[in-house]
Amino acid sequence: MNRMGRYVVSTIAWHVLLALLVLFGLFVFFDLIGELRDVGKGSYQFGHALVYVLLSSPARAYELLPVSLLIGGIFALSSLADSSQITVMRAAGVSILRICRWLLAAGLLFGGLTFAIGEYIAPLSNDAATRYQVAAKESVLFGRFRSGVWLKNNQEIINVSAMQSDLSLQALRIYVHDNQHKLLKIIDAQGGRYQGNGMWQLEDVTQTRFLADSVSVTRAGSMPWATQVDPKMLAVLMIKPKDMSVQALQQYVEHLKDNKQSTARYELALWAKIFYPFACLAMMLIALPFALSQRRSGNVGMKIFLGILLGVSFNFVNQMMSHIGELYQLPPLLAAALPTLGLSLLAIYFLWRQEKG
What we know:
It is found in: Cell membrane. By secondary structure, this protein is α+β, with helices and mostly antiparallel strands. The chain has helices spanning 3-35, 46-82, 85-91, 96-137, 231-235, 246-258, 264-275, 279-297, 300-327, 332-356, and strands at residues 149-153, 156-163, 169-177, 183-196, 199-210, 215-226.
């Protein structure tokens, strides 16, 4: 990339970061206001709410990045067009295609940043925020329902009443059956702690074995329990699929497939996470015709407003497609790709009209 390309990319990056900062501050403020309704309940105070919102903020930045890219891109390119810098570039022989390559470079840069935040930073910060909030409220990660949480793992059906913020379990029951679904035994434990490498240590255990002609009951102070279920898998039950990393979604989808359970919801979230960074490329491409057309038709504010409205609409449609895809049983790949694909085609059409006109 030559000096001119680096100048355009750096100008766009500066405006995008400025737009992200404004939107980020606004939404974090709203999140803090939303948390105030729980302040004063038990030991949960304003300081706890503030820390929780700050720990959750990377996920908010992940959601806002593509929209910020469109807003910042429109402002940056509009300023370049308004000062006739793009006109000078075109007069010097820079084609629209070359400008698009510069925009795609900026889109790749922020797409990589979006993927990194969504895959590594946001899931860890969300997990830390949830644990912090649970500890501050002196509550449990899950256990609000009378029936507890149920999950299936091979020949075991597991019911957990509650999970503490330190990832220890309370009041769990394990139903063990054979390949013919005949109940072999029931294991009741008052608590359990994960030891690592697929091993749990159960406390205050009662085992009920169903033999051919009798029932045997044994009790023990503690016993090991080997299983594929670990705290991360249990934590999935309290996390929205959109807040999980691609790796975590892949692992959980495989677990559901192994246990012959429905995977549609998590597969759709998986593909949505994969396609989301590519939206940054489409946002960059569609920013160019919005910025250039204002020089011909005037009314800069209206053009920028329409561009912002388009970005917000994309964000809304992208979130809505997860529900539509699940409701109408669309292929997860198709449902996840449609918003980004539609935006890309719209950007290409606008650019074609811009060049043709």
